[in-house]
């Protein structure tokens, strides 16, 4: 029986420097009966040259050959649907809840779409496949570093012959994986850190990192499914914004991380709140996207300096700014998922399996993931 042939594409999204598979992971997959094709130059922007892939045992080919020969196409961002053919599978961070029509197109083409962002993150056996967490961990670290770089004072308390510099006051909004890493990194840089999250369970996690937890009276606990926060009602969001504004104005640096899968990120920092901050303050909006962000005036991939001297950074795709580490973590996640999907040397789709029920978006000509199918029904 021929080995399953996986193909690693070269990412084409603007600013994307990650690659779906690293040379180290090529060796691991070959030991699990996969044959690996890599598009020439796929890993170059993450500092993995073609020579390293070839040395690990992969066949380095041109893009057309890769799409023609691969049984499973591996990516970070989804490739154009027209590049994929019937009977082929594609595995990546496909964002099906944001791109339901693309998923419908893949189903019509007979492509099996498998998205790591549909993984049920609360399953312990799925942890090695959890790409959202691995990438959020990197993003949280980078957000704190970006904030420190933009803040034109020291983060730590410094006592020198020229006098004492007080530590920066940092507020992190959202204490999921990214938020906790941002908290830990800002603390290691010497800042005084406070954090807020609508999920009551986050309180102990924040305190365990040596940060203070901000208690709001206006919003009760809002834990949702899968470890995420639920979306707040309009009334809750308005009350939250008003109470948070008082805290935000007292801080030098604010890092926002709050997101709800498949929906517009919650608005936490209004334009008026930004106006209340003192000159030299920095905001890093990790949720900034084409859908909007946590900060009313942020723009994805852009840095804005307001009239009152506040720097607002629409952080965009932070893992792509650390492509070597991000690709290494992502490659381990995607390799673990591939091995879970393989049975007797072949890709075996089993929608009774809890992991596959979350990640398999299209199969056998249909959109089979419940959340994506409901979105398509609502828009048809």
Written account of the structure:
By secondary structure, this protein is α/β, with parallel strands linked by helices. It has 2 domains: about 5-130 and about 325-380, Rossmann fold (3-Layer(aba) Sandwich); about 135-315, NAD(P)-binding Rossmann-like Domain (Rossmann fold), CATH 3.40.50.720. The protein is about 35% helix and about 20% strand. The chain contains 12 helices and 19 strands. The strands form 4 sheets. An 8-stranded mixed β-sheet has the order 3-2-1-4-5-6-18-19, with helices on both faces. Strands 11-10-9-12-13-15-14 form a 7-stranded mixed β-sheet, covered by helices on one side. Strands 7-8 form a two-stranded antiparallel ribbon. β5 (about 90), α4 and β6 form a beta-alpha-beta unit. α4 crosses α12 (about 370-380) and α5 (about 130-150) runs antiparallel to α10 (about 325-340). The chain is globular and about 70 Å long. The protein starts with a strand and ends with a helix.
């Amino acid at each position: 029986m021929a080995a399953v042939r996986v193909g690693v594409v070269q990412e084409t999204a603007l600013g994307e420097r990650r690659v779906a598979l690293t040379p180290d992971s090529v060796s691991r997959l070959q030991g699990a009966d996969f044959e690996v094709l890599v598009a020439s130059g796929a890993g170059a922007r993450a500092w993995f040259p073609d020579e390293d892939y070839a040395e690990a045992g992969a066949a380095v080919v041109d893009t057309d050959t890769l799409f023609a020969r691969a049984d499973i196409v591996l990516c970070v961002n989804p490739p154009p649907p027209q590049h994929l053919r019937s009977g082929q599978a594609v595995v990546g961070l496909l964002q099906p809840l944001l791109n339901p029509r693309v998923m419908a197109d893949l189903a019509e083409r007979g492509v099996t779409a498998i998205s790591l962002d549909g993984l049920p993150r609360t399953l312990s056996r799925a942890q090695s496949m959890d790409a959202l967490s691995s990438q959020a961990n990197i993003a949280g670290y980078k957000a704190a570093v970006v904030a420190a770089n933009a803040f034109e004072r020291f983060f730590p308390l410094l006592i020198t012959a020229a006098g004492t510099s007080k530590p920066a006051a940092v507020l992190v909004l959202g204490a999921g994986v990214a938020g906790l890493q941002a908290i830990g990194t800002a603390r290691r840089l010497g800042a005084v850190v406070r954090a807020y999250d609508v999920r009551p369970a986050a309180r102990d996690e924040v305190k365990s990192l040596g940060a203070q937890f901000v208690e709001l009276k206006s919003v009760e606990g809002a834990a949702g499914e899968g470890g995420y926060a639920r979306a707040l009602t309009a009334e809750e969001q308005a009350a939250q914004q008003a109470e948070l504004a008082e805290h935000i104005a007292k801080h030098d640096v604010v890092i926002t991380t709050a997101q709800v899968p498949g929906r517009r990120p919650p608005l936490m920092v209004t334009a008026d709140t930004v106006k209340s901050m003192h000159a030299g303050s920095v905001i890093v909006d990790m949720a900034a996207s084409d859908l909007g962000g946590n900060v009313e005036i942020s723009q994805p991939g852009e840095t804005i300096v307001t009239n009152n001297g506040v720097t607002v950074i629409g952080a965009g795709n932070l893992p792509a700014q650390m492509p070597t580490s991000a690709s290494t973590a992502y490659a381990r996640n995607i390799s673990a998922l591939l091995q879970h999907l393989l049975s007797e040397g072949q890709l075996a789709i089993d929608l009774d399996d809890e992991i596959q029920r979350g990640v398999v978006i299209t199969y056998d000509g249909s959109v089979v993931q419940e959340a994506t199918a409901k979105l398509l029904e609502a828009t048809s």
